[in-house]
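Feature request, filed as a ticket because there's no other form

It would be nice if the structure record came with a short human-readable summary line next to the tokens. Right now we just get the raw output. Example of a typical job, pasted below so the devs can see what we mean:
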Amino acid sequence: MLPALVAILIILHTSGSFRKILGGLQFVVIFIAIGLAINLLAKFFNFWVVDITSAAIASLKGALMFMTIASIFQWTRIEEIRWFLEKIGLGELGTSIAIAFSQIPYIMIVYSEALSTVKLKYGSRYLYKALLPMILHSVNYAKEITEATYIYGIPKYPIDASIKIVDAIIVVASSMMLLLCLYLSITINAFL
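Raw output as currently delivered:
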């Protein structure tokens, strides 16, 4: 198995896609690092500590869950989220949640611009200096959204709730992948 892994790594490195794959794994490595840091803190404070492989698997599951939720929100429109939340009985709360979700991309753009500005001005040592302006901007922006919603109301968009063949295929394939991941998770945990 090790020679095959080395051969795959050599092929990926020579083809130039090794850097892309490592770039994609940075997100998973962040979750693994957080899990290991929590594990080390638990050991330091004499709490119950899990072994390293269980911490890595739990971190990988957390990263997969986060990526799944992120992809769901990329595939659905805000109107669909609002329609779904109203159908399950949330009403005004569902509308508020949908409005909050619709503002996340704009706030993330502003935050990344603020962090880039602070990094260029101060380097990576003083990133906390961007925190207060970002909080103030978020509060002002939330106030503006609230005022606009109060004055103009929330528009109703008709939603086509019909199911297309492509949608059904995607749902079935996603469900099959979820069940496969669940099965593999159960069998891997049974052998650890």
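Something like this underneath would help us a lot:
The radius of gyration is 22 Å.
The longest helix spans residues 92-122.
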